[in-house]
Input
Amino acid sequence: MAPLHVGVVTSATDPTPHTTVSPDWAPPTATPAGTLPDRAPRWSLPALIAILILAAVLYSWNLSGSSMNTFYSGAVWAATKSWKAWFFGSLDPGNFLTVDKPPLSTMVMGLSSRIFGFGTWQMAAPVIVLALATIYILHSTVKRVWGHGAATVAALVLALTPITVAINRDNNPDTLLVFLMVSGAALAFRATRDERLLSLLGSAACFGLAFNTKLLAGWIALPAAFALYLYASRASWAKRAVNLALAAVVLAVSSFWWAIAVSLVPASDRPYIGGSTDGSAWDLIMGYDGLGRVFGGEGNGGGGGGGGGGFSGSSGLGRMFNDILGGQISWLLPFSAIALIGGLVLCGRAPRTDLRRMALVLWGGWTLLHYVIFATAQGTMHPYYTTALAPGIAVLCAGGGVMLLDAFRNDKRWIWVLPAAFGVTGIWAIVLLRRASGWNTWLWPTIGVLTVAGVAGMILFRSGNKARLLTASLAAAVIAALAGPTAYAASVPFGSSSGGMGGVNPTAGPSTGSGFGGGPGGGGGNRGGSGGFPGGGEMPGGTQQGGGQNSQAGGEMGGGFPGGMNGEAPSGGMNGQAPGGTGNSNGGGQMTPGGGNGELPSGGTGNGELPGGTGEMPGGSGSGSGSTRGGFGGGMGGGGGMGGGVSSDLIAYLKKHMDGATWLLAVANSSSAAQIELSSQEPVISMWGFTGSDDAMTVAKLKELVKAGKLHYIQVGGSGMGGGMGGGNSVSSAVTAWVEKHGTAVKESAYSKSTTSGSTSNSTSKSKSNSTSSKSSDSSSQSSTSTLYQLDPSDVS
Output
C-alpha cells in the first residue's frame, strides 16, 4: 500500500517536513521567497543568547537593593520552616492563615530557599529562570511559523516590556503564571499543528497549574487555545471531541487538586484560607480572588473605583492607555492591533490549517481576552497584571509585522499599512513620554525624528535598487518603536530610586498616573505628586526622598491604598492620610513608614504615630512631626527589604516572654505579620488577612490559643482592630472588646530603651485595661491608637 502523501510543510526552524494527511492541510501561502531558509541563519542563536543575557541583566541587576513583596516573602520563609506551611501556602510556620492565592508560586520559591537558604536572591533565582524560559519558549514558537527574524523581534519585545521587567524582579506569582500560560499556548499550537494528543494534554496541565498559581487569571487565555484546536485540528469532529474531553479531565485535575486536598483536611487541622469568607479554598476561587476581581465586591471594591480604581484607574476599554497603565504596557498595542487585523486579511482564503492564521488566532485571542478582562475588571486591578498581555503583543508585532512587511514590499495596495503602523506607534510613544514631564526630555523628540525618517524612508526607498536605504529606514522605525519601552524598562534596574509600592505594586518608569503608580527608577515625572507613595514613592522598608516641594508627603498624594482613591486609605483619610487620624508631615517630602506622613492602617495618631504605641515600623525611623511608634501597624506596604526595621527592643521583649508559645504576636493584617516575622524569625498571626477583612480570628479561637499557651501577645486598637486594610467587622470588634476586657496592656517603658514623654502619654500601665483609671486615661485615644496586650491562660474564663 502506497503511503498517504498529499503535501509537506517546512519552516525556518523545523527543517523536517510535516507530512500532511488531509486535503485541506497545506503550507502557508504567500510565504516571502528566501525569507524562511531550511537552516537557521548564523546570527539567530547569537541574537537569542544576547536577548536572554539582556533580559537577565534587566531582571537581576541591583536586585538586592530592590523591594520584594513582604507578604509573599513571609510565606516563603514559612515554607522553609514547615512543610505544612509549604503545602498550604501559610503566611507563618504556625499555620494560622494562608496567603490569598494557591501556593504554587511560594512552593517554587520555598524549595529554592530550602536548598540555598532564605533570602532575596534565593527567592528571585527561580523567578528569573522562569522569565528567561518564557522568552525562549515564545521565540521557539514564533520561529516555527514566521522564521528567525520574527522570533528575534518577539523575544526582544517581550524582554523589554516595562511592566514585565518590573514584575520579573519581584516575588509576586505573575512570572510563574505567564510562564505556564505561554507553555500551555505553545503546546496547544503544537498539538493542533502536529495532531499530538500528548501535547494537548500537556497544554491542559499547564493551564491547570496556572490556575493553581493565580486562580481564574490562569484560565484567561484558555478559550483561545480551545478555539484553535477546535477550529484548526485536522482530526475528525468525533476525535476532536474525545481529545478535548480528555484534555478537560487533565485540566480539572491539574486545576482543582489543591482545593480538593485542602477540603479533605478538617478545618481544625488546616490554616484558614486567606481571602475567603469561610476559610475554604472554594470560596477563594469563586469570591475574592476569582469572580470578585472581574465584577467587584468580595473584598475587591467595585466599579473600578475601589481596589481597582486605586491602582489602575477606572474600568473601561481605554484603561490600558490611561496615565497609570499606558507607560507600562500600551507602547506597542496600536501596532499589534494593526498587525493582527492586517495579518488575518493577508491570510485570505488560506486553509484553516494555515500556520500563520493559526498563530494569529491563538495569540490574537490571547491578547484580546486579556485586554477586555483587564480593561473592564471592576475589582482589584494592579498594573502588573498587564504583564500577561506582553506575550500576545510580542507575537503579533513580530509575526504580523513580518506579514505587513512582505505585503509592503510586494503589493502596492498595502504600501501605506506598515508605515502607518509605525507612525501611529511613534506618535503614541511621544504622547506617553510627554505625560512624564521632566523625565528624559530628549527622548520624545528623538523618537519623533526617527519615526518621521523611518516612515518617509520606507515609502521613498521601497522601489528601485535601494535595499540598504530601505533597511536603514526600517531599522529607524523599529528603534523609534522600541526606544520608549526600553527606557522605561531600563529605569527599573538602573534608576536612582525605587518608587511605587515596591514589591506590592511594582511598576516601571516615572510616576504619571493617579493610582499607586510610580515605578522603580522613575526619577522624574510627577514624583511626590500624582502617583507614587506619599513622599515621592516610599514604601515600607526604606527611606526615600520625594521629589515634591510640599511638606505634606511631598505634595498631594495622587495614589491610594488598596480600596481607596486619590490618596485615601481604607477606612478614611485623604492625601496620604491612613485610617484613624489626620496625617501631616514636616519632613519636607521624606517619608519613612510610620513616621511623619500620616497614619498607616490599624490606628495611630494624626502625627504619624503607628499602631501599638511602641516600636518602629519596618524601614527605619520616622522623620516627620510624629513619633514612629507601634512597630507593627504595617498595612499593605510590601517593601521592607527582609522585614525592614521593626523595633529590635520590642522584638527582643516579645521573644524573651514567649514562654513556649507557638506565635510571637497576633496583629491585624498579613503585611504587618510578615514584616514582623521576617525581622524576628518567629511565627506571627495575621488575624484579618491581607485586606484586614478575613474572619480568621474569632473570640472562641483566641481563647483556645491563649488557654493552650500558644499565644501571649496581641496588638489591638485603631478602628476596631481590623480597621487597617478593609475595615472592621462584628467579629473583629468582638475580639477587640474581649482582649481589652481581659488582657493586660503592656507599658512601652517595659521594653523601650528611649521612651519619651510624648510617646508614653498614650501608653497604658500594666494593669487590666477594663479598670476605671485605664478607661479614663485612654478614652480620648483608644479609637485611634493601638496597644500591645498580654494574655495568659488565667485570663481565659
